[in-house]
Every structure is written in structure tokens, then in C-alpha cells.
Amino acid sequence: MPLLLGGLVLAAYSRIVALSSGTDALVGTFHDDAFYYFQIARNVAAGLGSTFDGIHATNGYHPLWMAVIVPLFGLVPGELGPVIAAGWLEALLCAAAAALLCAGLQRSVGTAAAALGALLVVAPPGAPAILRGGMESALLLVLLVAAWRAAGACNDAPGELRRWLTLGCILALAFLARLEAILFVPAALIVWRAELRRCKPAAAAVVAPSVISLAAFLLWNKAAFSVWLPISGAVKLTWTLRQTPTLMLSHALDIPWAGREALLRIFGAQAWSGVPPAVRLVYVCSIVALLVAAWRYRVRLAASLERAGVAFPVLGCLLMVLVGQALLGGLQPWQRVPLQLGTALVVAAWVAPYRRLAIVGSALLALVLCARPVREAIPESSSSYARWRVAAARWLEKNTAAEDRIGTWNAGMIGYFSRRHVVNLDGLVNDHVFLAEGIRGGRLGDYLDREGIGWIADQACDPDEDLPRYLARGGAADRAAEFELAAFLHAPSGCPGTAVWKRSRTEIGVRQPQ
After folding, report:
1. DSSP class of residue 322?
2. Is the pLDDT reported for residue 506 higher than 80?
3. Is residue 511 part of a domain?
4. Which pairs with CB-CB distance under 8 Å and at least 24 residues apart come from 325-330?
5. Looking at the 3D structure of the chain, how many domains does it have?
6. Structural domain boundaries, residue 495
7. In terms of domains, do 395 and 342 share one?
8. Is residue 36 part of a domain?
9. Residue-wise burial string across 324-361, b where 16 or more C-beta atoms lie within 10 A, e elsewhere
10. 225 near 231, Cβ under 8 Å?
11. Which stretches of 263-367 are assigned E, i.e. beta strand?
């Protein structure tokens, strides 16, 4: 069963049709943020250093996934070749994770529940956006599943120090794949507190690799980029702290389970606010009812998790979700791996006694997974922002000089396909100077002057209103008068689209800060 399931996932997630249908179809399967990774990896492979724009050194990424894809950009030729290779690598990682998860669950919950648990990770609506969008998600999933399997080996032979050290090393790799995954270390200490109290070397073996990795990571960041943590995390934390308490609470309580993704698709909504209020209310009430039921039957649920041997990964996933919701103001699709994995493990453990239910659920999810390649054969619609970002990038490549600097907030695809100096103005893949000046200091206008930003390009539906709104993020709304619309590439309705504005001032130029 595990190998069959892994093959099914590989066939569905490789998206053979989409990957061979041209730029628009290919690009539409990746997040814009994935091209932050791709552009930096291409620059590193080309010897330009850890930069997105070719100018400013940045550490706005998780290091392990970057280390994995840099060789792809060094060895695979062409513009799309490395991107396709990254997509295939993600598909392989997802297939491996599903097979490992199914094999691990079979021993404790049976074949039907094991298949259901593995399919719940990869088959529901929105799962491909979580796991195969160009981000670090598939790598993280494999490592979390591998950590759980290593923990099972520790249970089988609790006195073998080598097995605890293996678990510790896998957890250290998971941390480098996604920094919040370091919370799996305290999860391990909690679950095995009795054993680790009796065997202090085993506790050290679990903790030491992550502590060493964390120390090395912090020192590398400070030495190379003048900040202790990734610049992207510092920016996101700044955004979160600026929110009102009410907004922070609403974001923290907005748990994006798979059911919400299904509702978005049913109602054709791009955001949760586009779903009818009555439907949203029913969804929230359903989630509340599930949580109440989980609390009501918490003893049985805990016993089920213990029998299935999944208490450790479920606790680790829960800690990651809680911290992500609190610090990041909500979870982007690629940040939902622990939510997806933890939910699947809980369901597999709970339905294990109900074999027929597990069989029916597995069959339905398998059908959904098998239908995915058919869905991918449908051409990308004009309602996707991706095609208009690429179109704007192509326009910039033809109409700007190689030395021109272009500012943008949603910078991934524009930066990658334009092959220009595209400076990221939301700060996620910029440097510590922009964090201090443009994000925390609100002096975006000064930054535009000093850096010689002569163009701005970003997604838009109304270019006249969108540019001041973008500039207002850095306290520079008044600078909109300095720019004029140069191009607007958009769907027939005008939305979505991407606009390019040219700065009309003639005295701009690169100047050093005072």
C-alpha cells in the first residue's frame, strides 16, 4: 500500500500536463513567493551572492530549501528548466512523505486508516498549494514524518543513544527547513519526559543538534547580514505588532483548515471575505463544534493518539500552528504543513476502530487525487495574477535598461522573469537597511531617492488608486505624483492586472545615506 500510494501522489503532483504547457500554465502552479527562492538561488548559482535584486544582501528565506535548490539553478539550463526541476523535486518529496506516513501508520492503525491519514495530507482541496507551490513545504513534510518514524525507533529501543541522536539530527534539519519546526524539540521533551529524565545523554542527543544549528544560524546571519534572524521574519513580526488587538485576535482564531479551501473554490472567492457571511458562520460553528467535541472526548482522543503512536508529531504540529498564528498573523498556504499533518494524524488515530469508514474516506480522497491531473489540464484562466506578473516582467525586460532599478512589493515573478534589478519594497527579501528605514522608520520616499528607483511595478486593478496605496505602506503616498503609468497589462475586465509606473523626475540617482 505505501508504494502504491506514493506512486499515486507522484503521478498527481508532478502535474505533467501543466509543466509542459508553456510559461503561464507552469508559473500558475507556483506561489509568487517561490520566485523569491528561485531568483536568489539563481543569483547564488551565478556567483552574485545571496541577493534577490543583485544589489542588496538578504537572508529572507529558510536555509535548507535554498541549499537544496541552488544546485538545480547551477546545473539545469534555461529560465524554466530549474523551475520545472524544483516542481519535480517537490512531487518526489510529497510522494516519499505519503509513503513513509502510510507505512508508519499501518503498524498501529491498520491499512485503511493509514491510507486515510496519508491521503488527508496530500489530497484535500488546497493541499497542492500547501505542498507543491515552490516553497519549503514538501521538504518540511518529509522531515517531520521522518522525525516521527525516528521517534518510533526510539520507542522500540529506548536505551540506544544512537537512535535518539538520529531523531535530534532530523529535528535540526527540520528547523533549518522551517524555523518554527524547532518547537518539535520541546514536544519531544514533553512526550518522553520520563525516559529522558532517566537518561540524560539521550536528552542531550535530542536537543544538542538543534541548539548547535540554531547557534550557527544566528552567527551566520549576524556576520553576513547584520541581523540575527531572517529579515523576512523581522518584517512579518513588525506587521503583526502594528495590528490592533482585535485584528490580531481575529487572525489568531482564523484556522485555515481544508474545509475553508473547499468553500473558497465552491464560491469562486479569492479571499475568505468573499464567501457569503452565512456560510462563514456555519463553517466557524462547525469548527467550534469539533473543538468542543474534542474537549468532551479528550480522554478517548488522547488514548487514540497514544495507541497510534502519534502524540509526539501531533503536539509538535500544534505548537507550530499556535506560534505561527500568534506571530505571523495567520498562516499562508505554505505555512500550513503542521496543520495539515497534525489533522491527518488525529483523524487516522480516531477512525482506526471504524474500518469501513476509513475505507470509504480513503476511496473518496483517492478519487480526488486521481482527478487532479485532469484539473491541471485546464488552461490557466485570465483571472490569475500570475500571467499578468509575467507579462509585466517581459515588458520591463524589453523597455528598461539593464542598470535600471524597479521597486515592487509582490516581487517574485516580476524579479525572476524581468532579469532586472527588482528591489523588494515589502522588505521580505531586502536587507537590514530597508527594514530600519522603509519598514520600521516609514521613510520609503527617502529610500526611493537614495536607491535611484526609477520604476515601480506591481499587481493592480485600478492603477490610479493602487500606486498611492502601495506607497502609503512606507509613508510615501505623496510620492505617487512623481510617477506616471507606463503600462497596464490586465484581464479583459481590468482585474486582475499588473501596472508599471515610470518615475518622471529627472534628478533621481543612487546616493549614499546621510
Report:
1. H
2. no
3. no
4. 325/251, 325/252, 325/253, 325/254, 325/255, 326/252, 327/236, 327/237, 327/240, 328/236, 328/240, 329/236, 329/239, 329/240, 329/243, 329/248, 329/251, 329/252, 330/251, 330/252, 330/254, 330/256
5. 2
6. 385-503
7. no
8. no
9. bbeebbbbbbbbbbbbbbbbbbbbbbbbbeeeeebbeb
10. yes
11. none
502519534: which residue's cell? 310
Rounded Cα distance between 138 and 136, Å, is: 6
298 vs 509: which has the higher pLDDT: 298
Cell numbers at 450, concatenated:
537614495
Angstrom distance (rounded) from CA 476 to CA 478? 5
Torsion of CA 446, 451, 455, 459, to 10 degrees: -70
CA distances from 199 to 202, 206, 399 (A): 5, 11, 66
DSSP state of 28: T
pTM of the model: 0.93
> Which of 331, 347, 376 is the C-terminal boundary of a domain?
376
Supply 187's cell numbers. 514536544
Cα torsion for 447, 449, 453, 457, to the nearest 10°? 70
What's the mean pLDDT in 53-73? 97
Phi, psi of 422, rounded to the nearest 5 degrees: -95, 110
Burial zone of 508 (CB within 10 Å; 0-12 exposed, 13-18 middle, 19+ buried): middle
Q: In which band, very low, low, confident or very high, does the pLDDT at 514 lie, cut at 50, 70 and 90? A: very low
More confident residue, 155 or 79: 79
In the chain, what is the greatest distance between 2 CA atoms, to the nearest angstrom? 74
Q: Grid coordinates standing for 168?
A: 535530534
* Packing angle of the helix pair 311-328, 245-253 (nearest 10 deg): 150
Asked if the structure places residue 443 within a domain, the reply is yes
The grid cell for 175 is 528547523
**Is the torsion defined by CA of 34, 334, 392, 491 positive or negative?**
positive
Residue 510, in any domain of the structure = no
Q: Judge if the upstream peptide bond of residue 338 is cis by omega within 30 degrees of 0.
A: no
Report the pLDDT value the prediction gives residue 265, as an integer from 0 to 100.
Answer: 72
- What's the per-residue H, E or C state across 400-446? CCCCCEEEECCCHHHHHHHCCEEEECCCCCCCHHHHHHHHHCCCHHH
Round to the nearest angstrom and report the end-to-end CA distance of the chain: 65
Distance of CA 98 to CAs 144, 208, 393, Å? Answer: 12, 29, 37
Distance, CA of 241 to chain centre: 21
SS (H, E, C) 362-401: HHHHHHHHHCHHHHHCCCCCCCCHHHHHHHHHHHHHHHCC
Are the C-beta atoms of 1 and 106 separated by less than 8 Å?
yes
- 435-461 pLDDT, tens digit per residue, is 999 999 999 999 999 999 999 999 999
As a residue count, the chain comes to 514
Percent of the chain with pLDDT over 70: 93
